[in-house]
Specification:
Elements lengths: L2 H7 L8 E3 L2 E3 L1 H23 L8 H20 L8 H17 L19 H23 L1 H4 L11 H33 L4 H34 L5 H6 L1
Antiparallel strand pairs: 1-2
């Protein structure tokens, strides 16, 4: 079978399936998501247990570095006071997506794999994107009121309303598909690398796994950054001038 044939046979959305009461579930995505969430909870508990202001450990230094960078980005973009919960939200999303993506380095048998990166399932990326965008709109309405927050839909002219509506509807789609497309491309590359002869298979596989980890890091950072940028729209004009 040629490389071209294998690339064509890699199907989008191919997962192990459970069928419960007429609902189709993807156990590989569910298990990997639970594992990533459990790792974050464990890291948080370990960090809380080892907190030391005088002699911080490596884990504490790592978390403080990430928090400082996220706080700086939020403050530069929208101001910390506008929506302080955006800092833990963006940080949690970054760490969750990063750990979930890095689960792909664990070798698993089977076709499809038992635990591919969860973000290669578009259902997860849609859920994450919808959560961010819906929460953004809820926050904007609560802070500025329905009329003031959605006034931008009529700017610079009321005739722009249909285009602005399409733009708003496209936000969760682009946010989800950007993450899904980049991670799913890694699944395709793994399938193509499997065509190499066994005696040299380890070399491209190792190199790709390292590159895949880098891609996972970049995509987690981009998702967290876009979350902050989207929430910047909830800032009122008076807050923009003050900031």
């Amino acid at each position: 079978m040629s490389t071209r044939d294998v690339a064509i046979n890699v199907k989008v959305g191919e997962h192990h399936e459970w069928h419960i009461f007429g609902i189709t579930l993807h156990p590989d995505t569910i298990v990997a998501t639970l594992i990533a969430g459990a790792i974050i909870v464990i890291l948080g508990l370990l960090l809380r247990r080892s907190m030391n202001s005088r002699q911080p450990g490596r884990l504490q230094i790592f978390f403080e570095t990430v928090v400082d960078q996220v706080e700086k980005q939020v403050d530069d973009t929208m101001g910390i006071k506008t929506a302080p919960f955006v800092v833990p939200l963006a940080m949690t999303l970054f760490l969750f997506i990063l750990i979930a993506n890095w689960l792909a380095i664990i070798p698993t048998p089977g076709d499809p794999e038992y635990m591919p990166p969860p973000a290669s399932d578009v259902n997860l990326t849609y859920a994450l994107a919808l959560f961010v965008i819906v929460l953004m709109h809820i926050t904007g309405v609560r802070k500025r009121g329905f009329r003031n927050y959605y006034h931008h839909m009529l700017t610079p002219s009321p005739f722009m309303l249909p285009i602005n509506i399409i733009e708003e509807l496209a936000k969760p789609l682009t946010l989800a598909l950007r993450l899904f497309g980049n991670i799913f491309s890694g699944v395709i590359m793994v399938s193509l690398i499997a065509l190499f002869p066994p005696f040299i298979l380890w070399a491209p596989n190792v190199l790709w796994k390292l590159f895949d980890m880098f891609i996972g890091l970049i995509q987690a950072f981009i998702f967290g950054l876009l979350t902050v940028i989207y929430f910047a729209s909830v800032r009122a004009p008076t807050e923009e001038g003050a900031h």
